[in-house]
Amino acid sequence: MDGVFQAGELISARALRNISEQTKLTELQFGPGIRISRIPGVGTLVEVEEQTVSWSHPWEVRMVNNDTLEVAPGLVNGLMPWIDGRPMDGFDENGKAHRDGKPFLKFKPKGDSVWVCVRVAGSGLRLTTAGGALSIDVVEKSTWRDGGSQDEKGNGGMHVGHYPLAWMRKVSGTWKIYQIAMFNLQWRFSQKTETSDARHWFWV
Fold first, then answer.
1. Which residues, at least 6 apart from 101, have a Cβ–Cβ distance to it below 8 Å?
2. Residue 24 resides in a domain
3. In which band, very low, low, confident or very high, does the pLDDT at 192 lie, cut at 50, 70 and 90?
4. Are 198 and 151 in contact (CB under 8 A)?
5. N or C: lower Cβ tally within 10 Å for the chain?
6. Segment 45-54, tens digit of pLDDT
7. Assigned domain for 8 exists
8. In sequence order, what are the beta bridge partners of 63?
């Protein structure tokens, strides 16, 4: 019978088609405290209302007030991004605490949906933090697909790319945060060719 196999048995194309069709017809079942939201153009959000264990991780985004965010420090290629002109962990290159402390991220969105991103800007393949080339930003549109972001030209012809750390949307007047990134990141840039666009690639 299709769908029941023994170890080492070859699976026929017909059996695979049957399994695929059954999978498409099967709805996932969720237990108490689990809520699912399917948003066109974004994906499926899974919200857990049960008590969970607190976990501090890189890039964690928290609301401080209506126009201020706190973003936990994270690394890209081992480098610390900047917020408001200084490293996001509040320490200088010598390991000394900055006189103004840890920076916060200001945001004034025009709509009801924003992305908190790490922004990479440069003129070549190497990554640097000079002049805020590696920073945390808030954008109101998505520019990424398939694990990378499309290349945009910034000031001076620099290559600019974004990676989403969290997605935020306003629900009944209150901003809700949907965390995406939870680990330090690696980055590479691929130049434009005859067959492909320039792309920024990010992975953990």
1. 90
2. no
3. confident
4. yes
5. N
6. 788 776 666 7
7. no
8. 69
CA distance 180 to 162: 13
In angstroms, the CA 66 to CA 54 distance is: 23
Domain assignment of residue 49, yes or no: no
Q: Which domain holds residue 155?
A: 56-203
The average pLDDT across 149-155 equals 71
Domain count, the chain: 1
User: Considering the domain boundaries, does residue 150 fall inside one?
Assistant: yes
Cβ burial of 29 (10 Å; 0-12, 13-18, 19+) is exposed
Residue 116: name the closest of 88, 144, 141, 137 by CA.
137
Give pLDDT tens digits for 109-122: 888 889 999 998 87
| d(C-alpha 46, C-alpha 35), whole Å | 6
Distance CA 150, CA 162 (A): 8
Give the torsion sign (CA, 98, 99, 104, 110).
negative
106: which 2 tokens? 């200001």
Please name the residue that has the structure tokens 């003129």. 123
Question: Can you give the pTM of this predicted structure?
Answer: 0.70
